[in-house]
Amino acid sequence: MWVRVLVTLGLCLLIGGGAAGASWYIFQSEPTAQSERATRRSAALVETVVAERGTFHPRFEVLGRVEPSRDVELAPRIDGLVVGIEDAFVPGGIVAANQALVRLDPVDYETVVATREAEVRQVEAELEIEQGRQRVAEQEFELLGEDVDPANRALVLREPQIASIRARLASAQAALRQARLDLERTTVRAPFDAQVLERAVNLGSQVSPGQRLARLVGVDEYWIVASVPLADLRWLRFPAEGETGAVARVHHPAAWPEGVHREARLARPIGVVDDRTRLARVLVIVPDPLGRDAGGPSLVLGSIVRVEIEGRALEGVVRIERDLLRQGDTVWVMEDGELRVREVAVVHRDAEHAYIEDGLDAGEVIVVTNLATVTDGLALRRAEDGDPSGGSEAAAPEEGAQR
Questions:
Q1: Inside any domain, residue 301
Q2: Considering 134, 159, 184, which residue would you say is the last residue of a domain?
Q3: Domain count for the chain
Q4: Angle ∠(262,263,267) on CA atoms, nearest 5
Q5: In terms of domains, do 98 and 200 share one?
Q6: From residue 338, how far is each of 101, 375, 379, 390, 392 by CA, in Å?
Q7: Do 202 and 235 share a structural domain?
Q8: Do residues 228 and 282 touch, judged by C-beta distance below 8 A?
Q9: Chain Cα centroid distance, residue 267
Q10: CA 247 to the chain's CA centroid
């Protein structure tokens, strides 16, 4: 039995040793891999624009509220019963200057006019009678041929009586003018071209002086009170005497189709800072706000609109898209096929552009494409020059390849 165990153990050791020797031989005879250093480099393909120096007008985008330039509450100046209302005298109606809107009962005022006219004719008749008496007195005085002092002479010639009647005549004429004026005021008219916002009377209403009849706003122009940062005021061009202000464009995205705007003019600074926003206020004037003459969309009072205001001219600057101004006021410039990160001096920024006065010259090539890795000296190719490979390939680092 022990012989059988020893034989089995010997066979196992023999098989294990043979397997180990075979494995060692395989590893020793396998070819050794060799590393070759391969370097593949290509210039990054980028889009570019050419810098241009010139004179530009920055644009400022601000928000403003639409307000009427003329806003009045219409009221009568006499008592009366409303007996007539014009068809256009309704909320939203457009009325012309001096157009009749409300008519009051004129009967009482016509009676007063007739009475005053009669009083004037009566006093005029008394004056004619007294002037006749004066002529008779002058004839008698000349026939007597007596010398009297000036005071007595005036009495003899009835000059005080004539002066008194003339005073009464002037008073009667003034009363007649007032009566006629009151009669004219029985028709309430529009003071200017206007739109009716509210109406507070109807047929049969009894009105008195100062009572509110309606609210009217002028339609020749509207105001936009816009809020501007204090730092931007110096860049705005306000009109001097006899000049027009800077051009402005009014946009109302909530109410108008995209791309539609109205022309306006910058008028003046209002001279106050908003307590809540700490922004300065400026006045923008929009002519023909309802588009009655030139057409176009109408402005709505009380609405908030976006206003683009053209600023003062910036001379001798380079204007670039604001997105091309990189972190730290730098610009990526392509020089001799390589990237250069250039620091620039920015004189002003608006919503779309940056205006550079130093650090960038006309004709220099600005890199538009965003790059993952930005280092001075990075090789670049312009997409405008064409890409034979059909794609963009950034510079690749050295890498090991097995073969």
A1: yes
A2: 184
A3: 4
A4: 125
A5: yes
A6: 77, 10, 5, 21, 16
A7: no
A8: yes
A9: 11
A10: 10
> Would residue 92 count as lying in a domain?
yes
Residue 79 lies in a domain: yes
pLDDT given at position 251: 93
Within this chain, do residues 248 and 383 fall inside the same structural domain, yes or no? no
φ, ψ of residue 200 to 5 degrees: the values are: -120, 10
**Residue 149, domain extent:** 107-184
Tokens 């609405």 locate to 303
d(CA 61, CA 230): 14
Same domain, 381 and 267: no
Please indicate, yes or no, whether residues 196 and 100 belong to a single structural domain of this protein.
yes
Paired tokens of 348: 């002003």
Residue 225 in contact with residue 68, Cβ under 8 Å? no
pLDDT of residue 90: 95
Angle, helices 107-144/159-184, rounded to nearest 10 degrees: 160
330 shares a domain with 224: no
pLDDT at residue 6, rounded to an integer: 59
Residue stretches of the chain with pLDDT short of 70:
1-41, 136-158, 386-403
- Kindly state whether residues 212 and 229 are assigned to the same domain: no
Residue pLDDT, tens place only, 33-51? 444 444 345 778 888 999 9
**CA pair distance 64, 251, nearest whole angstrom:** 10
Share of the chain above pLDDT 70, in %: 79
**Helix intervals (H) in 145-229:** 150-156, 159-184
| Identity of the residue numbered 17 | G
Strand partners for 280: 228, 273
Question: Mind listing the pLDDT tens digit for each residue in 157-198?
Answer: 667 777 888 898 999 999 999 999 999 999 999 999 999 999
Please give the Cα distance from 167 to 8 (Å, whole number).
Answer: 163
pLDDT, tens digit (0-9, with 9 covering 90-100), for 107-121:
999 999 999 999 999
Report how far apart the first and last C-alpha atoms of the chain are (Å, whole number).
57
Q: Are strands 44-46 and 380-382 parallel, antiparallel or unpaired?
A: parallel
The model's pTM: 0.69
CATH number of 329's domain: 2.40.420.20
Domain finish residue from 313, 336, 361: 313
